[in-house]
Amino acid sequence: MAMGPPEIKPQEPWRENLTMHLVCKDCKEDPPNIVEDFAAGDTICGSCGLVLGDRIVDTRSEWRTFTNDDQNSDDPSRVGDGANPLLNGAQLQTGIAFSGGGSAKARDLSRAQNKATHDKATKTLLAAYKEIGALCDGMSIPKNVSDTAKHLFKTVQDDGAFRGKSQETVIAGCIFIACRQCKVPRTFREVFSITKVSKPEIGRIFKHLEKFLRDKNEHMRVSAEEGGGVPNPNGTGFTNVDSTTPKDLCTRFCNLLNLSNKCTTMSEDIALKTEATGVLAGRSPISTAAACIYMASHLAGEGRNAKEVSNVAGVSDGTIRNAYKIMYAKKEELVRREWIAEGRADFKRLPLAN
């Protein structure tokens, strides 16, 4: 069988090689034997010793420690922490540390440095941030909510607003707004139980804070547009949020009652239907959510009595029973028919409304 001519691959077009190729002009070895002497800053031919370049820069990592020898630290870092946006100033000041076994001169230097760099505003912010973090931890609130509350508090503090209000009251209002913004709603009762600020006072500071932050966002937007700039979409970090709905509270209350995902989904759907039809119009979201959970738990066969639900929701069992009595009369409108057809729910499990 005759073989055809071999296939000829197309030759690549010529391109200039831009790679630097250093060769000793005396030895002309290829590949060259080049040695970099970083101590002297020279590039040397390893074969003949000819100096090919000087003042080279050492680009390798430098893992020397710059901490005090008496601290027994191997940290090679010689830069400080990143700037904290929640504090004022450049935050580039130097701190003089002093340990218990230090000399008297070190103690005096540390004391003098603390007096020279003392900033009352920063000290107030740090104390408020510490309190916000402790309160959020006590309510099992995620860190993003705590950071949002700190940012809102700094906005209020920098503007000098609410000087007549106690710091604890402003902190409670910031936490409540931050919870709503981060979709982790908490009730006035829950914030009151942690901060010891009365519910009416939390409600008032919430309204004032909401108006202040909304007006400040508008002022920043107008100022940016008048100056020919682009408004900052984040503004003060505050965004208008809707009121807490019964559906928002159902998930957390069901988790506290150890109810299944099926029951949680059922209670959320009933809460949406209740809100859409206006069956419990005029009642608080907490009372509505508690009544929906009470009904859904019995429909799903995981019945919880009114007392158990009231302990979690923070409303009286009589309020839950009164709301359930109204819902029981409208159960055909509130419960999906497919749940009954599939056996996921059963009206016979519902307790009679007395």
Q: What can you tell me about this protein's structure?
A:
- This protein has 354 residues and is mostly helical.
- The protein is 49% helix and 3% strand.
- It has helices at 104-116, 120-138, 143-159, 167-181, 188-195, 199-226, 246-256, 261-277, 285-299, 306-313, 317-329, 331-334, 337-342; strands at 34-37, 42-45, 51-54.
- Strands 1-2-3 form a 3-stranded antiparallel β-sheet, with no helix packed on it.
- β2 (42-45) and β3 (51-54) form a beta hairpin.
- α7 packs antiparallel against α8.
- The radius of gyration is 35 Å and the shape is extended.
- The termini are far apart.
- The mean pLDDT is 81.
Assign a percent range to the helix content.
Answer: 40-55%
Structural class: mainly alpha
Question: Looking at the chains present, what oligomeric state does this protein adopt?
Answer: single chain
Biggest sheet: strands, sense, closure? 3 strands, antiparallel
Mean pLDDT: 81
First and last CA, distance = 101 Å
What percent of residues are in strands? under 5%
Radius of gyration: 35 Å
Number of strands: 3
| Shape descriptor | extended
Largest sheet: spatial strand order: 1-2-3
Order of helices and strands: EEEHHHHHHHHHHHHH
Q: Ranges with pLDDT <50 over ≥5 residues?
A: none
Number of helices: 13
